[in-house]
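When time allows, look over one protein, given below as sequence and tokens. The question is which stretches look regular and which look disordered:
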Amino acid sequence: MEPIYDQYNRKHDYLRLSITDRCNLRCVYCMPKEGLPFFPDNRVLSQDEIVQLVKNFTEMGINKVRITGGEPLLRTDVVEIIQRIREIPEVKDISITTNGLFLAKKAAALKQAGLDRLNISLDTFKPDVYKEITRGGNIQQVLDGIATAAELGFKKIKLNVVLIKGQNDDEILDFIRYTKDHDVNVRFIEFMPIGNAEADWKQEFVPLDNVFDLCHQAGLAYQPIELAGNGPSDNYKIEGFKGSFGLIHPISARFCENCNRLRITADGYIKACLYWNEEINVRKVISDPVKFRQTIQRALDNKPLNHEMALAQPERIIDKAPTWRHMSQIGG
């Protein structure tokens, strides 16, 4: 087993694997208002292809797998997929990113199948704002899912909060105070210009320095902490609180410096970098481990040092362009 590195000597041991592009929400930062045409079933990786793909990656030192979408719980075989990945000895950690709408119904089966951790999208505590951001979602289903998951004792539950100016940036302290009695890691994430016009993105962007300012104003003293598997998040804890909060700065701070992630889309393409359009079809070489590794290495050799999201001006780009995919088609 030989680990894989990019041209900047960053070791990659973390796979983000999308198992569907379908979603039952149309969140404003993830999908256009009118929705998207979803892939036909035969264009999406099969269960057997997914399992073989993960096995191939473990031969390259990958030991952490995150299942993403779209909404991965929409796949009827999601429990079987996790169970089969759990049976691969080299995989040490399995997590999933979900909007939580089906979590109350499926959490117990997911835990029994071997799921370690959960990332749940929850951008607001207000039912009307939730319905606005998600374009129709029912927040009570998500809250029920979080409560069910907490009772089951997953290793870690994280709540993903994408900050959007004028919609939920007035709830930052509400989320931080939520961690007083709930052992979760609330992660504030900067709004990213993926699938959004530059003018719209700038109007909705909230820099994460605001979180510290609000803590100071509220007299909440925070301390930096280390969390296992925290990825790009800088994490903090208020003294006496059960949970913690984290900041993910894809725009305003170091996000790419220690990037160890590879992304596979639901239709079998590798995206070495979240933002740029470069992607290579790996589906056709899943059954050939040698060609598979060569293809992955080729993608890594082209991986840039930084995504340069905030600097990207399409009219000035010569050799590359922002991805054509919306976030729901990438897997985050």
The radius of gyration is 19 Å.
